[in-house]
Write a sequence for this structure.
């Protein structure tokens, strides 16, 4: 028997949970956990992150709502000490420095503790409830919200379905989605569906009608179309397919129905105009299929 036949079968991961278990074990085998446990690195300001972590922990453990709100309002940022730097996420298959992960956990726990402590204190809470809500809303505005950007790439865009499934099953699918080209097709279908409809979409979308450019795509047909229409593909097929998936729903109607914010960037026909970003604010009455 050859050596190749005696090798164990490759590990397969059909869900994010399966993949996480595999790569976590792989990190342990390769010794990556030691790098994660060592806070010190010249790739980020570990002293700043450690200091902010201590402040959050102390405020939370002391049940001080004013201090917790102050820290969340003034120092909460996505890339504290450059902790969002890409290099920090290339040393292992999953995760990064444990210090960074502890800081993120502490920030989430502090936000939850702020609401819990202030509720238990009732009228004795030193912060007016309306003032707290306003400051938390301002904190969210300055902190920003996560968005999912789906790129183009023809049939490669079907990989977006796997990404969306992993995010959905982990409860991490953002409410803001932007898509270009093939990404706009997937993003548009996602953003017109209610939560209870998402599993069916994920299971069946790739097997539905996705013949967006028609069947007559031979080289000669494309050459003739470029000469006659100035375009490589026929838009009519894409129009029919997207109307079948989306109907005549507008950006505003989709937002009202699902709460998801769909963004579709559209290139202008002029060399002197900037691309336009269509969504429920900038183009509320535009039908989504037409933007795609």
């Amino acid at each position: 028997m050859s050596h190749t036949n005696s090798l164990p079968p490759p590990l397969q991961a059909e869900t994010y949970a399966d993949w996480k278990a595999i790569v976590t074990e792989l990190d342990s085998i390769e010794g990556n956990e030691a790098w994660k446990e060592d806070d010190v690195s010249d790739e980020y300001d570990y002293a700043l992150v450690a200091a902010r972590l201590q402040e959050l922990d102390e405020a939370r453990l002391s049940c001080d709502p004013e201090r917790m709100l102050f820290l969340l309002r003034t120092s909460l940022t996505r890339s504290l000490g450059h902790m969002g730097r890409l290099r920090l996420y290339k040393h292992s298959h999953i995760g990064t420095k444990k210090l960074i992960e502890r800081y993120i956990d502490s920030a989430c726990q502090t936000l939850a503790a702020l609401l819990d402590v202030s509720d238990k204190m009732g009228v004795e809470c030193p912060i007016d409830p309306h003032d707290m809500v306003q400051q938390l809303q301002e904190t969210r505005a300055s902190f920003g919200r996560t968005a999912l950007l789906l790129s183009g790439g023809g049939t490669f865009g079907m990989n977006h379905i796997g990404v969306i499934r992993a995010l959905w099953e982990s409860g991490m699918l953002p409410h803001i989605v932007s898509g270009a080209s093939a990404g706009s097709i997937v993003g548009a279908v996602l953003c017109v569906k209610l939560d209870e409809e998402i599993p069916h979409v994920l299971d069946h979308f790739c097997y539905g009608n996705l013949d967006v450019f028609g069947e007559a795509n031979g080289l000669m047909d494309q050459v003739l179309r470029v000469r006659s229409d100035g375009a490589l593909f026929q838009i009519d097929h894409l129009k029919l397919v997207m109307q079948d998936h989306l109907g005549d729903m507008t950006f505003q109607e989709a937002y009202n129905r699902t709460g998801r914010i769909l963004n579709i960037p559209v290139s202008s026909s002029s060399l002197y105009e900037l691309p336009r970003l269509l969504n429920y604010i900038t183009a509320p009455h535009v039908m989504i299929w037409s933007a795609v």
